[in-house]
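hiii, so i know i said id send this last week but things got crazy w the move. better late than never?? heres the sequnce for the chain we talked about at the cafe, plus the structure i predicted for it. fair warning i was half asleep when i ran it
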Amino acid sequence: MTSIRGAVSGTHPFSELLIQSLLDYKYGRAEKSIVQEKFQIELNDLIRLQENLNFPTISTGSFGIEDLIRPFTRSLSSFKSYHDLGDLPINRWHYTNTFYRKPELVSKFPEIPEVVNSDLHSLSDNNSYSHDYIHNKDSRIILPGPYSLIKLVHTKNSVYSSLDEAIIAAGEYLAKEVESLPSNYLEIQFDEPYFVWERVSRNLRDSISTAYDLLTSKCGNRKSIINTYFGDVSNIFSFLLDLPTSGFGVDFHHSNLVKISEYSLNNKILQAGIVDAQNFIPQTDGKLDRKQNKFYSKILSSLFELDPSEIVIASTTGLDYLPREIADEKLEQISDLVKSLREIN
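okay and structure toks below
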């Protein structure tokens, strides 16, 4: 019988109260200690919610981490200082229509890990990944995948001779970070949005495979999941099956279910992103409307046909653009879908 569970798959948002406290602190109307106290309360509430929903691995929801790669670009000396950003190229984040300075990799990745256990959180006296809050719990952590990490930054030609070399170097460095993780992390999610945002060149696939060989060699008994979102995974599905990770995540709101159904996962884990992270509309009295029910019924009934070893129900991506109350409700929705899927099973 296929194992079925729920999980947090991305960044979780602050409440309006905490956001207001942050603004008050920024403009000198509140002490930092007040913001830190509220931050700790909300993070503990998120952890407690996951426990109440029986999620077997607990995530901090990347709580308070500005974006996927920020701890790396902030802490690694390999990246250009955040105090000297004026001449960096500008990129557009198309899903929110915002622009950002693209971090620049100016030297090779270091020989020792400097991020996951060292980067300090701006809102607590803790590490950015908040290890202390979950040190005695079975946990999962979300890290950038090597391909997307390189694609999200600007790499000087003088640092690595080719994109292939940069991807492998990123995989080698991330492997060191993985090896340094506390033992309670049983699952690692590597976010690879660039796998579906643009077509992955066949010339780069060997390098990506090598990077993941390096990564998974340091995972030990930990489960490793590549997560994709905001795009159709069907065009790269066969390539994902060949990568040496325990499984991968699919955004079912953007992927072609008919094409995906042609494959078998051969006992890999399927992280099913079926709870829409972009939908702001709350459920009515905790119930799904008819359109939602039809969509979920169609997806749920097809998951077992893919022959996964395990099904992880999750949101399509992080819930950080939703109000906190609705984001919490989305996690409850994940729990409800887990129960529904177990009934089908």
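btw Residues 3-13+54-344 form a domain with the TIM Barrel fold (CATH 3.20.20.210). thought thatd interest u
miss u guys!!
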